């Protein structure tokens, strides 16, 4: 075999030095970048929905936590652990009362550590309903806190309004 034929067959010169080309061609590079772009554009909506899903999960938890605190306050008031206003029907006058707490047999009993921030509005402001309000009312009568809801006007992934949760 001659040296030139040996070079063609093995990609090496007769002295053993490789002359193989390494790297990507321009076409391979363009195709790779295009595929990565398509994959990235598909991942952005998925990430956006995941963030909304996490916020919805947090909203449900916060609403559950505040409603549970209201229920515990009402149970303690019904058992006569502390005095409440006559027209309150045993419900707290506001959400701050759940955080500040009440005196029960010389001890301060708190029902919430803090008023949570609404993940949909970014504020620690919640809509409230009293026993005297209509179940679907947006206005708060101010007598006592029977229920809480989000003030967000947005719509959840399942199509319901956050304020209806």
Helical/strand content category = mainly alpha
In one word, what is the shape? elongated
User: What spatial order of strands do you see in the largest sheet?
Assistant: 1-2
Total DSSP helices: 3
Number of domains: 1
Distance between the termini: 84 Å
The succession of helices and strands, N to C, reads HHHEEEE
- Rg is 33 Å
How would you sum up the major sheet? Answer: 2 strands, antiparallel
Low-pLDDT stretches are none
Helix content: 40-55%
Mean pLDDT: 84
Q: Would you count the extended β strands for me?
A: 4
Strand content: 5-15%
Descriptive notes:
This protein is mainly alpha-helical and 165 residues long. The chain has one domain. The chain has three helices and four strands. Strands 1-2 form a two-stranded antiparallel sheet. It has a two-stranded antiparallel ribbon with strand order 3-4. A hairpin with a 2-residue loop joins strand 1 and strand 2. The longest helix has 53 residues. The radius of gyration is 33 Å and the shape is elongated. The model has no long low-confidence stretch (mean pLDDT 84).
List the helices and strands and how they pair.
Blueprint: H1 3-10, H2 26-78, H3 95-100, E1 102-104, E2 107-109, E3 127-129, E4 147-149
Antiparallel strand pairs: 1-2, 3-4
Features:
165 residues, mainly alpha, two-stranded antiparallel sheet, two-stranded antiparallel ribbon
Brief description of this entry?
The chain has helices at residues 3-10, 26-78, 95-100, and strands at residues 102-104, 107-109, 127-129, 147-149. It has 165 residues and is mainly α. The chain is built from 3 helices and 4 strands, in the order αααββββ.
């Amino acid at each position: 075999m001659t040296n030139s034929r040996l070079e063609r067959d093995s990609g090496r010169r007769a002295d053993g030095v490789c002359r193989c080309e390494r790297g990507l061609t321009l076409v391979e590079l363009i195709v790779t970048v295009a595929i990565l772009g398509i994959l990235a554009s598909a991942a952005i909506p998925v990430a956006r929905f995941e963030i909304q899903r996490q916020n919805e999960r947090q909203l449900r938890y916060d609403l559950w936590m505040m409603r549970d605190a209201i229920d515990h306050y009402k149970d303690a008031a019904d058992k006569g652990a502390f005095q409440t206003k006559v027209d309150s029907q045993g419900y707290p006058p506001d959400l701050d009362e759940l955080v500040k707490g009440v005196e029960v047999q010389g001890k301060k009993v708190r029902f919430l550590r803090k008023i949570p921030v609404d993940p949909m509005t970014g504020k620690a402001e919640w809509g409230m309903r009293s026993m005297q309000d209509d179940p679907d009312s947006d206005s708060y009568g101010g007598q006592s806190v029977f229920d809480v809801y989000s003030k967000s006007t947005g719509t959840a992934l399942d199509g319901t309004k956050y304020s209806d949760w």
